[in-house]
Sequence to fold (55 residues):
Amino acid sequence: MNACELTAAVTAIANTIACRLNDDEIAVLSALLVQLGDTLALIAVQRDVCCKKKE
Fold:
């Protein structure tokens, strides 16, 4: 999947979700997904730092 296909797929998913949720539910889901992304980014950075320390 190239970058254009990926962004189109994400947009389609967002539109599908938005059609089924009210504004409050969208806000909560959005905050949850931001937290998930931030946590995964932190885990990835922490693993990278730990691996470099072992070398």
Summary: Helices lie at 3-20, 23-54. The mean pLDDT is 95. DSSP finds two helices and no strands in the chain.
